[in-house]
Amino acid sequence: MKEDFSASALAYFERHQEETLEKLSQLIRFPTISAEYPERQAAFSECAIWLQGEMSQMGLENAQVIPLDHAPPLVYAEWLEAGNSAPTLLIYGHYDVVPVDPLDQWSQPPFEPVVSGGRLYGRGASDDKGQFWAILCAIEACLKSNGNLPLNLKILIEGEEEVLSRHLAAFLEENRERLRCDGILIADMEALHPQAPLIMYGTRGICMLEVHLQGPNHQLHSGTFGGGVENPLNVLVRLLASIQDGETRRILVPGFYDAVQPLSEREWALLEEVPITEEMGVAISGAPALAGEEGYPLKARISARPTFEVHGICGGYCGEGVKTVIPADVTAKLSFRLVSNQNPTIIGQLVKQYLVKQTPPTVILEVSILDEAQPAIIDCDAPLIAAGKRAIQRGFGALPKFVRGGGSIPILRPLQEILHPHVLLTGFGLPEDRTHSTDESIALSQFYNGVRSVMYLFEEVGKLP
Ligand SMILES: [Zn+2]
Known about the structure:
The protein is an alpha+beta fold. The chain folds into 2 domains: 5-203 and 375-463, Zn peptidases (Aminopeptidase); 205-263 and 299-371, Alpha-Beta Plaits (2-Layer Sandwich). The chain has 14 helices and 18 strands. The strands form 4 sheets. Strands 1, 2, 3, 6, 7, 8, 15, 16 and 17 form a 9-stranded mixed sheet that branches. Strands 11-13-9-14 form a 4-stranded antiparallel sheet. A 3-stranded antiparallel sheet has the order 4-5-18. Helix 2 (17-29) packs antiparallel against helix 4 and helix 12 (383-396) packs across helix 14. The model has no long low-confidence stretch (mean pLDDT 96). Zinc ion is lined by residues 94, 127-128, 161, 188.
């Protein structure tokens, strides 16, 4: 490897910044909304073919569109010329985006990107088209300036992340050999602020349930039947309240905390460094005051501790004025965010058993598990993480903070278990990017720093023993 590997790549990138952004705008123009697949099939095929062409043009090899049954195609490419002795990094990203409604609240159409005030606006600009595009730009700059890389690369871009990557784990299983690697890079996150880039070393899992209670076989007059027939809505409210202690906010389902790994001393120290305060929580949420589990600061409660939420209750009468009925049946949607090593399937069963026990014989209970994702934890001592820390510091001019993420990345655990446990999970977005919302954008400065970080990362990973 040449001494000035990243310097020449950087110079190349700086000469081609305009084209890079133009290409990213083209990528954003494909309306690849995975929640609207298969109606959007054409957009997915066109985008996948476009990506394949771009990846070949960048100097990557074996670029291909891989069709999947009943799902958007994958796009794959590789560069394996660094040889058997060099490490192989697998890069994962997603080219699908979330829906755009309410459309009338966008300042410009979501799939007609514009640059304004140092930001590029458009659906997917930050999540995740802009972020994986930054990685591809770094690859192109390295290959076109140096003609080589100090490591091997395999790039896998999927089109189903926003709808829980339902088909990807099976593909990983079937293609273990082809995807064999020494570590994985994912850029699909938001830094805390421009001077606080991050490395995420964990994500929460989730168990989503629906609870249904059947009372009388039709709505009843509460004057005629009230006091004699069970009201399923009253039971539902009692049931939901019985899940969590109102004071300590501990979840009361027996066995719920059995597998929870407590925060280590080192994790507490890492948490100290995270610049999130209770005041910020109040200001950003607009809530009158914060709530959460006793004994943990806000930044631990929103990332490293399990939660219980009721997302919706349906039943009875909520229209204008009064209608004094005893509803026939009622429904609630709930979820539990889970931390390492809780298993969502086991938690679902525990919750089900608990609710069955709490339910009186006056109503019929049905509990269904709607979806689940495993929590994940990444070893902070992995050499890839150390390389990532140095690269991000060089690219952003600030040391990355180590955080556990409060959200869930369903494919993270399968990637770790099937391909490699060491994942550098980072991101070039910012909280103000409004991902999943209207007027999504990415800050160009973050994008450029992201490209730089990835060039340095290739250099750093190439030096690993
Ligand atoms: Zn994403």
